[in-house]
Amino acid sequence: MVVRVAVAGASGYAGGEVLRLLLSHPEVEIGALTGHSNAGQLLGGLQPHLVPLAGRTLEATTPEALAGHDVVFLALPHGQSAAVAAQLGDDVLVVDMGADHRLKDSADWDRFYGAPHAGTWPYGLPELPGHRAALAGTRRIAVPGCFPTAVSLALYPAYQARLAEPEAVIVAATGTSGAGKALKPHLLGSEVMGTVTPYGVGGVHRHTPEMVQNLSPFAGERVCVSFTANLVPMPRGILATCSAKALPGTTAESLRAAYEKAYADEPFVRLLPEGVWPTTKSVYGSNAVHLQVAHDASAGRIIAISAIDNLTKGTAGGAVQSMNIALGLPETLGLSTIGVAP
Ligand SMILES: NC(=O)C1=CN([C@@H]2O[C@H](COP(=O)(O)OP(=O)(O)OC[C@H]3O[C@@H](n4cnc5c(N)ncnc54)[C@H](OP(=O)(O)O)[C@@H]3O)[C@@H](O)[C@H]2O)C=CC1
Ligand SMILES: CC(=O)N[C@@H](CCC(=O)OP(=O)(O)O)C(=O)O
């Protein structure tokens, strides 16, 4: 099987990461590569790490450039995907790495994003029960946000096993690539180096409704999420520390058993040995999710900590994993759980 793939937004971080992964995918042939302000430029000058594609020229993101492919990845700014997707055939697998098709509730979309809601597509987080089946054979995939991936996988087993109350306090650290490549003053080296900066505090981070949407079905009621992000001076990685009030009867043993059961057969989620804590370094460039749980008996809370690479499992790796499922390929094809250390 040869799958011909186009990447729109190939000059950006998410587009570059999906190309890095697709270059090692045995069934994929890389077709059109498109950009916006960089259309006409050689990819080698923009993504020098993608050596085999260095001589390729970026085209403008048009329906003509994207036509004739089996799969089109959209790595575009929020709000740009729907118009492009509407011009692609129903038989083409469109994988949207932006937020446009993730949320079910249009009111949430309006509140956190502001533009007209484009609709809802099957959600590319196969580890959440029910989602893998919905991805099989689909021709439209909404890739989750990076924080919702880390947080949903850290917490859903506790809700599914009814070990936690339907509230969660989450504090996550993220690398700077999560903000994209476009110039932003708060991301200048002199602003981010040597400091940790909170942002999106007080219920305003746009990933909050996505976390609520993912977790609530497992709690059997709406989960109230308080989320705080922290920008840290590293290029990649997310470490999410998630805490919820334990329900009566929860023990360290019941908590661990719930997570062991949830992830026994998941190729990318690794519940670390007891006493070993996730680090962003261990998942750098890999599609793995590292996870650990603890029961804080004195505070009556459960703590779940996850680490992912925001660009890999947090976007491009999750996108390729979901593509594999949609096309009926082995789910792990082209993806690795091996990190880079030290
Ligand atoms: N970075 C991350 O960790 C994650 C990113 N995502 C999502 O992936 C998408 C891309 O993000 P990211 O790669 O970080 O962003 P970047 O800013 O790095 O890249 C954006 C890409 O979109 C292109 N582009 C910019 N404006 C337009 C436009 N008006 N029309 C068409 N193309 C345009 C750019 O082209 P050019 O450079 O040629 O102008 C570039 O290729 C976003 O929706 C983001 O939310 C999702 C999860 C994680
Ligand atoms: C450092 C930083 O700014 N990170 C981004 C997350 C990027 C991401 O995963 O998500 P989207 O696809 O939803 O943009 C943020 O906090 O908004």
TrEMBL record:
Pathway the protein contributes to: Amino-acid biosynthesis; L-arginine biosynthesis; N(2)-acetyl-L-ornithine from L-glutamate: step 3/4
Entry annotated with the keyword Cytoplasm: yes
Alphabetized InterPro entries for the sequence: AGPR, AGPR_AS, AGPR_dimerisation_dom, AGPR_type-1, NAD(P)-bd_dom_sf, Semialdehyde_DH_NAD-bd
Annotated catalytic residues: 146
Top-level taxonomic group: Bacteria
Localization, UniProt: Cytoplasm
Catalytic activity: N-acetyl-L-glutamate 5-semialdehyde + phosphate + NADP(+) = N-acetyl-L-glutamyl 5-phosphate + NADPH + H(+)
Keywords: Amino-acid biosynthesis, Arginine biosynthesis, Cytoplasm, NADP, Oxidoreductase
Entry's Gene Ontology molecular function annotations: N-acetyl-gamma-glutamyl-phosphate reductase activity; NAD binding; NADP+ binding
One GO BP annotation of this record: L-arginine biosynthetic process
Main location: cytoplasm
Any one Gene Ontology cellular component term annotated for this protein: cytoplasm
Classification via Gene3D superfamilies: Dihydrodipicolinate Reductase, domain 2, NAD(P)-binding Rossmann-like Domain
Name of one Pfam family that matches: Semialdhyde_dhC_1
Keyword Amino-acid biosynthesis: yes
Catalytic activity, EC: 1.2.1.38
Record-stated family: Belongs to the NAGSA dehydrogenase family. Type 1 subfamily.
PANTHER family, per database record: N-ACETYL-GAMMA-GLUTAMYL-PHOSPHATE REDUCTASE, CHLOROPLASTIC-RELATED, N-ACETYL-GAMMA-GLUTAMYL-PHOSPHATE REDUCTASE, CHLOROPLASTIC-RELATED-RELATED
General function of this protein: Catalyzes the NADPH-dependent reduction of N-acetyl-5-glutamyl phosphate to yield N-acetyl-L-glutamate 5-semialdehyde.
Protein name: N-acetyl-gamma-glutamyl-phosphate reductase
Organism, scientific name: Streptomyces lavendulae subsp. lavendulae
Gene: argC
